[in-house]
Each structure stands twice: as C-alpha cells, then as structure tokens.
Amino acid sequence: MVGSAVSFLQHVADQFRQTSLLEWFGTITGFLCVYLAAKQHILNWPISILSVGAYAILFYQYGLFGDAFLQVYFFGTAVYGWYFWIRRKQEHQKPVASLSSREWGLTVGAILLLAVVLGLFLAHFTNSTVPYIDGFCTAMSFVAQFLMTRKVMQNWLLWIIVDICYIPLYLYKDLYLTALLYFVFLGPATLGYIDWRRSWKQAR
Fold it and tell me: What subcellular compartments does it reside in (predicted)?
C-alpha cells in the first residue's frame, strides 16, 4: 500500500519534470484568463487566445481530439466575446444576465444532445480512447463558453462541473499540470459566480 503510494507520487513528480514548455504556457495563460474573466476584466479575451492556441496543439498531440477542436471554437468565441464586452460597455447595458427556467432547460438539452453527437463522432471517426467523456466535457465547455461571451452568470456553474470532470480525464492522460490547473480553476469559477451574481442583483 505504502509502496504503491510512493510509486504513484514518483510517477507524478516525473510527469511534472517532463512537462513541456507548451503546457506550462497554456497553464499560466489559462489561469490568468479565467481569473480575469471572474473579475469581468476584458483582457481575459486576448489572453484566452494565447492559451487556446497552446492547448489546441497540446490536446491534438495527446489524442484529445474533442478538446483540440474545442480550442478552435474558443478562439472564435474569444474574438466575439472581446467585441461583445466592448460593445456592451459602450451601450451601458446590464453587465450580467441570468437564464430563465426555460432557458436552463434548453441549455441542458443542448449540452446532452451535443455530447451524444460528439461522443459518437469521436468513437467512430478518431482513435480517441475516451470518446464519450471527451465529448461530454467538450459539449459542456462549448455551451459554457458561449454563455460567458454573453455575460450570463450561469456559465460559471457549468465551468465548475466541467472542471470536476476534466481533472480525472487529464490525470488519465498524464497531463498532470493541466489537471492541477483545472483543480485550481474551481476557486476562480466559484468566486466568478458569486461576483457575477452580485453584479446581476445590483443591476436589477
């Protein structure tokens, strides 16, 4: 038992020592963009572009094709979010929005449908070893990112679920630094939801 624990810790330490500069860059910029998004700071979008570029290459190399494709989507939403946040500020609209019960239902339905489609696609057309969990995480991230660009506070609730799901997935793929990053993401995501909810209430 003790020997197995020591071996696991040695393996983790070896993986951290072997972590590529690309993963370090993606991790650092990824943390910065999430922290700035939680603070509603517009610089989260250009920093996000740097992070998703690094992770698009990294995930493709590790066979996480759903996540690699997701980074391309993140790039597009980062450009759109940057523009939308600037326009929203200039028009003095409410800074944060909230989903109605009907919109929540549509959101959950969209996530489940997209997760099934992506899972089946990855299972049949790629050599992914984790097609369905990759598809589910990709689908939820897809929707959460869109909600963030529109400044909908529930995006943070989805990100919290995504972060919890991604941690074991990245550990399985030996992406220990990225797994640690998603564990750390739980803090800013929780604070982001609290802060955005406070802003939404103040603007009502």
Answer: Cell membrane
C-alpha torsion 106→40→79→86, nearest 10: 110
What separation, in Å, do the N-terminal and C-terminal C-alpha atoms of the chain show? 56
Q: How many CA atoms lie within 13 A of 99 on its CB side?
A: 21
Please tell me whether the overall predicted TM-score, pTM, comes out greater than 0.85 for this model.
no
Structural domain boundaries of the chain? 2-203
- At residue 17, what is the residue type? R
Q: How far apart are CA 46 and CA 134, in angstroms?
A: 26
3-state SS, residue 43: coil
Please list, residue by residue across 85-118, b when 16 or more beta carbons sit within 10 angstroms of its beta carbon and e when fewer do: beebeeeeeeebbbbeeeeeeebeeebeebbeeb
- Express each pLDDT in 124-146 by its tens digit: 988 888 899 989 998 999 999 99
Q: At 177, is the pLDDT very low, low, confident or very high (cuts 50, 70, 90)? A: confident
pLDDT tens sequence across 54-101: 999 999 998 888 888 889 988 999 999 898 888 766 665 567 899 999
